[in-house]
Amino acid sequence: MMLERLRWYKRELIAVGLLLVSAGGLAALNMTTFSQLTQSESQLQNIQSQTASLQTAVRQKQAFNSKELPMLGQAVPKSPGIPAILVSTSALAQSAGVAVQAFHFGTPSPASSGSLSSLPVTIDVRGTRAQILNFLYKLEHETRLTAVQSIALSGSGATQLSTSIAYTVYYR
After folding, report:
1. Per-residue confidence band for 101, with pLDDT thresholds at 50, 70 and 90
2. I need a labelling partner for 90 at 20 to 30 A (CA). Which of 16, 100, 117, 127 fits?
């Protein structure tokens, strides 16, 4: 009977040992799973933050496209548009009270990397000093991107001056 009891204790000890080993394995597995879960939660928060930032950027881009893009298209058209330049500059001259004597168009320069193409224009106008200054102001503040390069005044007196204005018109 004693031998039998020893065998029974031995089996119980083995069973308890197996239970302890299994419990230790489960605890280690739970620690690994918990660590992976913590990493996954951290990655999820990072992705959610990036998604929110991207959504904000998309909203800003859409707002820019709807408001600013049409204006940008007018300021920097896709082609030099010489007829449009003639019409708009003539209208500016008429509203400023100067008489257009001549238009001279230079050779368009293609865009280099990251810049705009440009077309040099020279216009000869005649008018009073105030009219010429008004025309220059209007030319520099036109919807289309324009930069005045030089002004050459000729004539004497305050009544009528001849002026040659060289400017550049930009396009894409």
Report:
1. very high
2. 117
- The pLDDT, as a whole number, for residue 102 is 93
Angle at CA of residue 132, ends 138 and 121, nearest 5°: 65
Cα 123 versus chain centre, distance? 34
For residue 162, the cross-strand partners are 126, 154
CA–CA distance, 47 with 70 (Å, rounded to integer): 34
**Owner of token pair 């500059």:** 89
| CA distances in angstroms from 45 to 40, 48, 52, 54, listed in the order given | 9, 5, 11, 14
User: What φ, ψ does residue 100 adopt, rounded to 5°?
Assistant: -80, 125
pLDDT band at residue 65 using 50, 70 and 90 as cut-offs: low
| Residue 43 predicted with pLDDT over 90 | no
Residue 170 has pLDDT above 90, yes or no: no
For residue 45 the two structure tokens come to 């928060």
